[in-house]
Amino acid sequence: MKIKLTLMCFIATLFSLQAQTAVKTNLLENTGTISGKVIDKKTSEPLPYVNIVVKENNKVVTGGITSDKGTFQIKNLALKNYVIEIQFIGYKTITKSAKLTENSSINLNTIAIEEDAIQLKGVDIVSERSTIEQKIDRKVINVGKDLTTAGATASEIMNNIPSVNVDQDGKISLRGNENVRVLVDGRPSNIDAAQLLKQIPSTSIKKIELITNPSAKYNPEGMSGIINIVLNKNASDGFNASINTGLTFAKTPKISNSLNMNYRTGKVNFFGTYGNNFGKKFNEGSILRLDDQSNQMFDIKNNDKSHLFKIGMDYFINDKNTLSVYTNQNKLIGDGIVDVSILNPDATKNLLQNSKYDGKNNDGTYNLAFKHLTKKEGETLDLEINQSIYSGNQDANFRTTFNNSSIPTSAYTDNIGEKRKNSTINLDYVNPLNDKTKLELGAETRIVRTENNYVTNNSSLSNSIYNYDLDIYSAYVTFGQKFKKIGYQLGSRFESYKVNASLNGATAYKDDYITLYPSASITYSLSEKDQFQMSYSRRVDRPSLSQTKPIREFSTPRVTSIGNPELEPQFTNSVEINYTKTIEKGSITTGVFVRSINNEINRILYPDPQNQDRQIMSYGNFSDNTSYGFEASLNYKINSWWDIQPAIDFSSIKQKGLVSVLNSTTYMYSFANKEVNASAFNARFNSNFKATKSLRFLLFGFYRSGVDGVQFNGKEMYKIDAGGRYSFLKNKATLSVRFNDIFDTMKAGFYGDNPYPQVGQFTWESQSVYVGFNYMFGAGKNKSLQRKQRDSNTKESGGGLF
């Protein structure tokens, strides 16, 4: 019976297989194929990786991409009427009709597509002058030649960007707040932001993104938001490159160079960027104490040699999977001389301290990313692994000579060694639930390990080892819907944060907490040219290593800078409303914001308990503070040869903090509360003039008002720049000249009463002439599939096969 049953099952299986084969054969007999070849209309060269979209009744049925030879073949299509769209970035979309009948195979033959003249015109405009785009969650400054001629480094061009300020020390602020997070290609760096900006050549920058109220998908660091610097990476077929060189004339010449290269062949895209900066930089300053009329005079010389390079590869496995790898390497070799003279009414108290610093810093970032597109249009999965390793070493020699023969000369040496490792694993998932609704989920693990060693032969100081370790685990969800005129997005980020700091093996600070960071945004389009956006977010600014390490950062005869290991994180709640209007000859962008800060981290200055003639510069947590303000910018083309970009921003800040006050009875210093209501105003004006098709001129003006603070009050600053740019060799080469700070007016002045009444000013080589040369070359012409949007720290989806 068992054998008979088995035989019956075998016979049934044969019939089943035969029936399936028959059905399959019938299906294949009733399907068709569409094929063809896509070429560039101007060059007749085949175009690889062109999107072929098959539609029926305006709905996408299937699709594909062209091969390396520009050919395509889409099989197993039902016998129906179709519309075929040929889509390629930078080219006009071509539409073809195809009617499949029984046993039909249609060959569309050779399809020539041409570059989109409108898009090409836009590219030309961006290449000449910078443009500003207001997107739903960020402001994007596409860096043009006018900004790259503003200076040799990222630090120098940042002051030309609305809402951004860079002080004489290179510290960056956004809307008047220094607690801003700086990213490069969407990823953090172990290098201090001020130092990093000075190492990146301006010609290596593609665009700068200002994200003032980030959503929950972003890490919550940075009280005033995020500044993301996106480096150039060509995406053309074949070999393409551009070389840039610049020379800045000030007290001594300074040289900057960069080289951007790209090679695309088949499914592999190789890219690389190299940049360097060389030259001596000079700074001077003075701080006059009004109580004893002593004057500190600073003479600072830095000789830095910095190198930055990025090299990577994109591998397009197929139309749904992309693997990308790259490494960023930053290297700095520098030496500095700081001479500090203290002059007193009594000349016998005068002294001179000579300090010499020699340092080497290396920061390497290694990145692996995988992007997967599912069968569902718009559904994506991104996995990214990032490892950043930093090592730095600094030797310092101090020698103090007194203008009193009875006091012997003193000398000692310091050495600071620092190592940091930052490991990140990030997973992002995007699922469009329908054509109006999108769900985003993500998780991230971040492990930071830091070691700081301090060795000195100064008998009054001690050697130390300071470790500062972070463990951060987070997950986020955002949900958004978009209707005809209105759209919204709600999100929240859940984060577990653990910090453990130790000094010489003993616990210096520990903290472990779980926090929720909500975000919300809503947009309303009054018309295609009028858009409102309102957003809210909660963010955090955690103490950095330099702010917490109880080890000397620098020292002069009157000031010693150390960190505070007991610093606590500061939190902010921010609300802003933005309005963007597109007009016939440009666009207008305005916005207002309100910010509430709890436990704000700020600089504090107090007398040294061991010597009240000396001051300790450190960090402390202030009380709850609030600020509000507005900004407005215009991008307007007056006529065919003249365009302007004025911008203003205003902030009103209410701060509470502790200051050191002298008791007139006991002559002892103690801390007291102080409240300040301050206003900050910034204005910029950029104007571009087109003299001929090849010759351009520009004029730039900048003004920053004085700002009162809890500790010091800053004085106003302003300058005017002018320059010109000439293009030749069929626009492949450009020569630029810029005269910065024509009237030599940029000075950083300040004054204050605590802990001593004092007034000071610092100057740098603000007045300079920059000469730059750019040349583009290469055999490739065709555009290719763009790399995933991870570079700009966005998780935008292409969807389906596109």
Q: Sheet bearing the most strands, described?
A: 22 strands, antiparallel, barrel
Strand percentage lies at over 45%
Q: How would the global form be characterised? A: globular
**Average pLDDT for all residues:** 81
What structural class do helix, strand and pairing data support? mainly beta
Work out the number of β strands.
44
Helix percentage range:
under 10%
Treating each run of at least 4 consecutive H or I residues as one helix, how many helices? 6
Rg from alpha-carbon coordinates: 31 Å
How far apart the termini lie comes to: 58 Å
- Uncertain spans: 1-28, 117-127, 780-802
Explained architecture:
The chain has 802 residues and is mostly beta strands. Helix content is 7%, strand content 63%. The chain has a 22-stranded antiparallel barrel. Mean pLDDT is 81; it is low at 1-28, 117-127 and 780-802.
List keywords for this structure.
802 residues; mainly beta; 22-stranded antiparallel β-barrel; 63% strand; disordered N terminus; disordered C terminus
List the helices and strands and how they pair.
Blueprint lengths: L1 H28 L1 E10 L10 E6 L2 E7 L5 E8 L2 E7 L6 E6 L5 E9 L3 H12 L2 E4 L4 E4 L2 H4 L5 H5 L5 E3 L5 E3 L5 E5 L8 H7 L5 E7 L13 E7 L6 E12 L4 E12 L2 E22 L5 E24 L2 E23 L7 E23 L6 E23 L7 E23 L4 E20 L7 E19 L3 E18 L2 E22 L2 E12 L3 H4 L5 E2 L3 E3 L8 E14 L2 E13 L2 E8 L2 E11 L3 E15 L2 E21 L6 E22 L4 E10 L2 E2 L4 E2 L2 E12 L4 E8 L7 E5 L5 E7 L3 E11 L24
Parallel strand pairs: 1-7, 12-14, 29-33
Antiparallel strand pairs: 1-4, 2-3, 2-5, 5-6, 8-9, 9-13, 10-11, 13-14, 15-16, 15-44, 16-17, 17-18, 17-43, 18-19, 19-20, 20-21, 21-22, 22-23, 23-24, 24-25, 25-26, 26-27, 27-30, 28-29, 30-31, 31-34, 32-33, 34-35, 35-36, 36-37, 37-40, 38-39, 39-42, 40-41, 41-44, 42-43
